[in-house]
Every structure is written in structure tokens, then in C-alpha cells.
Amino acid sequence: RSSYSCCYFVLPCCFFDFHGKYSRRQSKKTQYREYLDFVAQVGFVCGFHVEEDCLRIPSTKRVSLIGKNRTYPPTESALIDKQITQFINSRTCAGITCDRRVGFNHKDHCDGVCEEVGSELPEDETEAAGTTWMPGFQPREKVEQIRNCASLPREFVDEVVLNVANLLLNATPQKSCSDMQSGNMNSWNQGESLSLKEVAEHLNKETLKRLKSEYGGLQTLLKNNHQVFEVLNGRVHIRDWRKEKPSSKTKPEVKRRLSAEAFKTRLCWFFIHHPDGCSLPSESCPYAHGTEELR
């Protein structure tokens, strides 16, 4: 209902109707297929030529529906809008509860089945229904504040990461890195693990205040910096990339070569900041040891 020029893309996942859980009506189809058909029907009722496509993503729910073109000219927009209003109200009254403000009062709740597009609203309520999309519907704000630490300035994030990393590294004595390349796990300073509370106690009040305004706060920021930290059971660790398990799936040679070429897109934090450097040699590290390795 946004505008005639609006197009849409939707990737159906959870089985919900306009106003609650979607109720199945056919047993000859799978629940997923029936729900896809329902979402496609919504697009058709709204006046779209609905196209179906299958995304190349690792998910069982990967069928998408796209509406790019309309089935009617702009001059018929008012008529289609009335049709959409009737459809929405027929769907919101199809369940056990029915909001009588929209003019429906099904005594037997239609056994879960209501007329779709052809049902008529009482004349005195048609105008009221046109002023709201559906009873109780609350659209989100046009501009939503991003509160997952993603909007914090890069300089601020880098400073917090460096401070927390130094805190963990200095919690244990520095260790020699003379035989780091030999594979000795004790030759590289892995630092100490500290609780989130202990880490927070070492940060200044201004930093904590800034993080408190973000959902997840300090924990979210540390988890976002997956390259440097590992947060397990409320404790923060320096990530040791030597312990990261390689993928159990064997990839074809072409894919292995392409993924290796795509790895070096970011600089290695440990190569730049860790007192012992990176725990991995350049050819094994998924990050660039110097700008000359960036791709």
C-alpha cells in the first residue's frame, strides 16, 4: 500500500499471518509450500505480478517472492486499495479472536476459513477501515536508531579493543616468542581471561557510558571484534587462531583457491598490535600481514 511505484522482495520464513500465527488450510501441501502460496496470494491481491525465485543461500527457507510490476493501471489504485482493505480485514478476523471494530462478527469463527477478497465491509465502517491498515498495527519509526555498536566511530572501537586486549595480555607475564614458529603453544602470549565485569571495571566512566547506550554494550562490541576476542560464558579471552578448527567439509580445488584469494581483505590485528606478533605464519593467517597482502 506504500505507493503505485513501490516494488517488493520478501523471503518468507516464520509462518505468520497479518495478526498472529498462520493457520493451515490444506493438508495436500507442505506447510512451507502452503505458506509460500499465501504470501504470493497477498502480493496478487495487492495488484502485483508475483514472481518466485530460489536464492543460493545455505538455508532450507530460501524461496523468495518478488513483485516488480502491477496488474492494473494507476487510475484503478483507489479500487485496489479498497480490495486490499477488505482482504486485510478478512484475514485478521479469520482466527479465534475477532476485533469488532472492523465490522466482522463471526459467531462460529468461520472454522478458520473466511471469504478472501469478495467480503464487503458495512458502509459506515468502510471509511474507518481505510484510515488504518489493521487494528492494533504499530509501524516502526521511519528512522530507527542503530544500537548494536555498529554505528560507533571506528576510532572509538579501535581504542576500546586495544585497551581490553592490553588488559588481558598484561594480566600474565610476557613470554618469549623465539620458538613461536615451531608450534609450541606456550611461546605466544595468550593473555588471561577476565569476566566482563572485571573488564568493565578497568574502563573509564565516559567509555562505559557510551557503551551503555548500545544494546549489548561492552559484550556486543567485543563479540563484533571476532578477530581479536572470544567471549565464552561471560568471560573474555584473546582469540588464539591456532586453535580454530578448519572446516570439516572438503571443498573442490576451485572453491578452495577462490576462498583463499578472498581471505586477505583486512589487516591482521595481531600482526600490528600483539607484542609477539601473529600466532600464525602469513600463509596460514586469514588476515593480511601488511598492506602488500591486501586483496
TrEMBL record:
Name by which UniProt lists this protein: tRNA (uracil-O(2)-)-methyltransferase
Subcellular location: Cytoplasm
Source domain of life: Eukaryota
Gene Ontology cellular component terms for the protein in this record: cytoplasm
GO terms of biological process kind: tRNA methylation
Family, similarity comment: Belongs to the TRM44 family.
Start and end residues of each C3H1-type domain: 262-292
UniProt GO MF annotations: tRNA(Ser) (uridine(44)-2'-O-)-methyltransferase activity; zinc ion binding
Gene that encodes the chain: Trmt44
Enzyme class (EC, first level): transferase
Coiled coil region boundaries: none
Biological role: Adenosyl-L-methionine (AdoMet)-dependent tRNA (uracil-O(2)-)-methyltransferase.
Native source organism of the sequence: Oxyruncus cristatus
Predominant place of localization: cytoplasm
Zinc finger boundaries on the chain: C3H1-type: 262-292
Keyword Disulfide bond tagged: no
Keywords from the UniProt entry: Cytoplasm, Metal-binding, Methyltransferase, S-adenosyl-L-methionine, Transferase, tRNA processing, Zinc, Zinc-finger
Catalytic activity: uridine(44) in tRNA(Ser) + S-adenosyl-L-methionine = 2'-O-methyluridine(44) in tRNA(Ser) + S-adenosyl-L-homocysteine + H(+)
InterPro entries to which the protein is assigned, alphabetical: tRNA_uracil_MeTrfase (IPR011671), Znf_CCCH (IPR000571)
Enzyme Commission identifier(s): 2.1.1.211
